[in-house]
Design goal:
There is one protein chain. The chain is of the alpha/beta class. 52% of the residues lie in helices and 11% in strands. The chain contains 17 helices and eleven strands. Helix 14 links the parallel strand 9 and strand 10. Helix 6 crosses helix 7, helix 6 crosses helix 11 and helix 9 crosses helix 10. The two termini are 20 Å apart.
Length: 378
């Protein structure tokens, strides 16, 4: 089968999984940002410094593994710059502040001050971000990194299609709720204090941020492929926040952002790290078959299946710990659990969050093999 026909077959399979339709085989997609260069013998310093090298090594790793239907999101670009924009924190890079073959590190600190809340209220969120970013990254580098991504986005998607791979999160936008950006800029400890000491001001700032994010979503065109995008969360997880805070500062924002994305024909992929089990029932408030849950191995998937498994697909969720410290048999057992207990309908097999840099190659290879052996339903 040629690559284009293979792509179309895989695309149809993944669309059926998202729509909770009957399938002949559970699709399997890749997620291993730092694993790819390590697997292919590229230094992390080169991977972080050269956006084109990062793209090519990500595709090469997928080709070497074989049997993958696609990827959670496309590789390529400058990972440190992308994470800086997401976390609002400086990211130390291998080959610079760190040894050349180590993993990049988010260096969280109280960079955003209490006075900055007033600046956001006065000038708006987007204007504040442009004033803030020089505190955590060289703006020449940041501009060059974002410029490469903008200039090469369409080519990147086309390269994945030419290799026969479906990109699930292919919409040209990645977002999160205001909670996460403020938490990264203020630091977790300071921000959690803010939620108790100045909750009204925090909420006022969040409303400004939400309005600008919604306007940005409205400006996007309907995507060409699957049309998924990360709507991420990590510090806002149910396990980390009291219900009254979660109900005020977290869930209303997810609901509004998800509804806005869906209205534009974009599939929100709830890339939720940490444990969200307590509030899984709230997912029933989202439209059926329009959203994907993408957890990291900590949320109770049996509870998810019980509460919303007939309404929402799941993409996951083999834990990072199994890839790094488990055996191929451990990986097989977990894939079997996912297919038999959580799937097969509405399941896209994928590493939970991201396969780590120290993933054992035999475990990643076992993941792909297990997906085909256990996930085949005929």
């Amino acid at each position: 089968m040629d690559k284009q026909a293979l792509y179309q077959e895989r695309y149809a399979l993944i669309k059926k999984a998202i729509n909770l339709e009957p399938i002949d085989r559970v699709p399997v997609v890749y997620m291993g940002v730092a694993f790819a260069p390590r697997y292919m013998g590229m230094s992390m310093a080169e991977f972080c410094a050269d956006p084109e090298a990062a793209l090519q090594v990500s595709l090469a790793a997928m080709d070497r593994l074989g049997g993958l239907d696609g990827t959670n999101m496309a590789g390529g670009g400058r990972i440190a710059a992308a994470l800086t924009g997401l976390w609002m924190s400086h990211v130390a890079e291998p080959g610079r502040e760190l040894p050349p073959d180590s993993l990049w590190q988010v260096q969280e600190a109280e960079v955003m001050t209490l006075d900055d809340y007033d600046t956001i209220l006065d000038k708006g969120w987007n204007a504040f971000v442009m004033e803030y970013l020089p505190r955590v990254i060289d703006m020449g580098e940041f501009g060059a990194a974002m410029g490469w991504t903008a200039a090469n986005g369409a080519r990147t998607q086309q390269l994945y299609r030419e290799h026969g791979y479906v990109v699930v999160c292919d919409a040209p936008i990645m977002t999160t709720i205001p909670f996460e950006s403020l938490c990264g800029g203020r630091s977790m400890s300071k921000f959690f204090l803010d939620l108790h000491r100045i909750p009204d001001k925090v909420e006022e700032v969040m409303q400004v941020m939400l309005a600008e994010t919604l306007a940005g979503i409205e400006a996007f065109n309907i995507p060409f492929g699957i049309g998924g995008t990360w709507l991420g969360g990590w510090r806002a997880a149910s396990a980390l926040l009291a219900p009254k805070l979660w109900d005020r500062f977290v869930w209303p924002y997810y609901l509004k952002l998800a509804d806005a994305l869906i209205a534009k024909g974009i599939i929100p992929v709830l890339h939720w790290d940490q444990d969200w089990t307590r509030d899984l029932a709230r997912l029933k408030e989202l439209p059926a078959k329009k959203v994907i849950l993408n957890p990291d191995g900590m949320t109770d998937l049996r509870k998810f299946k019980e509460l919303v498994g007939d309404r929402m697909a799941i993409m996951g969720d083999v834990p990072a710990s199994l890839f790094a410290a488990g055996t191929p048999d451990d990986v097989y057992d977990y894939v079997r659990y996912l297919v038999h207990d959580i799937g097969p309908t509405g399941l896209i097999l994928c590493p939970g969050c991201d396969a780590p840099i120290n993933t054992k190659p035999e475990n990643m290879e076992a993941f792909v093999a297990a997906a085909h052996e256990i996930g085949s339903l005929h």
